[in-house]
Amino acid sequence: CIRDRFYLAYSLLIGKGAGQNEAQGIAALSALAADGHVEAMMHLANHYRETGYDQGREVFDRIKELYERALKAGSPEAALSLGVLYKEGKLVSEDLSLAFQYITLASKMGSLQADIHLAHSLAAGLGIKRDYVAARRHYLEAADNNLVGGFKGLGYLYEYGLGVRIDLVKARAFYDLDRVISTSVRSEN
Predict the structure, then answer these.
(1) How far is it, in rounded angstroms, from Cα 88 to Cα 121?
(2) d(C-alpha 50, C-alpha 31), whole Å
């Protein structure tokens, strides 16, 4: 079963439930990725990213290629990852406009986490004209889904009166909610 092969490959890579053997895990995930397994593509690309940015052009190209293939297969997480890559400018040249396009695509494809990135880009004018009203809408969407950063972004908008009237009581309430969500997420991990 492909699912079993994926779990075994991932377990080998991270050493959970089985002895860690990074080389075997990478080889097994690579074989699954070659067969079009989207989760294998994503985990392999994420592993390469997590192991450091000093790996050289060949690995950078491999990461980008894996995300692009996963995106073509319908992964909203791949669209978000590509957006973040272009936003950071670490593996590819920084391109805030292209980053915003990928992050918008991720949101349209159903990535809830994309709303945080969209809101921040809109509030800061990263790759798009600054739009606090649209940023608020995305922060609200993120907050409605209890995503870390959604309430904090709303607090910031209310604290400084960005697209809304200054309301320090609301700002404090949103900051407090963000702390609760952040603490809850940390305790789950």
Answers:
(1) 12
(2) 20
Check if the beta carbon of residue 116 is closer than 8 Å to that of residue 149.
Answer: yes
Q: Tell me the per-residue pLDDT of 111-164, one tens digit each, with 9 for 90 and over.
A: 999 999 999 999 999 999 999 999 999 999 999 999 989 999 999 999 999 999
Asked if residues 107 and 114 have their Cβ atoms less than 8 Å apart, the reply is: yes
Q: Tell me 112's DSSP state.
A: S
Instruction: Give CA–CA dist 186/34, Å, rounded.
Output: 34
Q: Using CA atoms, how far apart are residues 68 and 81, in angstroms rounded to an integer? A: 10
CA–CA distance, 37 with 57 (Å, rounded to integer)? 24
Judge whether 75 and 38 are in contact, CB under 8 Å: yes
Question: What's the CA gap between 21 and 25, in Å, rounded?
Answer: 6
